[in-house]
Amino acid sequence: MSITEEREAIVDFTQAYFPPASSLFMGMSEDFTLAGAVVAAQTNTIQAGYIAASGATLIEFATPDETVAAVRNGEADAVFADGDYLLPIANEDADLMIVGEPVQLGGGVGMALREGDARREAFDAAITAMKADGTLNALILQWFGPEAATF
């Protein structure tokens, strides 16, 4: 789960095991501007929260695939989601493109645990060891490609 201040007030997070990645806008027109736009985002994500606070019109969908479909069928001017999700789609579909500027949200991805959960120390120790010996970066690059952010 993306580590945010609002979420940290409710749960305890392990340290990040995936660095913060940029969120991107993807649409069908280079003329995209957030002001006055209709933007699709997945429900209960940090991207949806960002759009809701921006003043743009937010339409939420249960799955990321539905957000992209909303752009393709004209329901939304753009989708706002993790860049790691959107970049391959934009690269494969000539009608879709990355628009606007990247936005950095959250403090990376960590495991959310109940407040005071004693297992947090063990998870943090494992994540620290994987960062130190390079295995965490190797896994990130293996599964998310050479452009992925690493530690």
CATH class category label of the largest domain = Alpha Beta
Calculate the mean pLDDT score and round it. 95
Strand order of the largest sheet: 4-3-5-2-6
First-last Cα distance: 17 Å
**Unreliably modeled segments:** none
- Quick one: overall form? globular
CATH architecture of the largest domain: 3-Layer(aba) Sandwich
Radius of gyration, rounded? 17 Å
Main beta sheet strand tally, sense and closure? 5 strands, mixed
Notes on the structure:
There is one protein chain. By secondary structure, the protein is α/β, with parallel strands linked by helices. The protein has helices at 5-8, 46-54, 64-72, 83-92, 119-133, 135-144, and strands at residues 12-13, 22-27, 38-42, 57-61, 78-82, 97-104, 112-113. The strands form 2 sheets. It has a 5-stranded mixed sheet, sandwiched between helices. Helix 2 links the parallel strand 3 and strand 4. The longest helix has 15 residues, at 119-133.
Essential attributes:
D-Maltodextrin-Binding Protein, domain 2; 151 residues; 6 helices; five-stranded mixed beta sheet; 38% helix; 2 domains; two-stranded antiparallel ribbon; alpha/beta
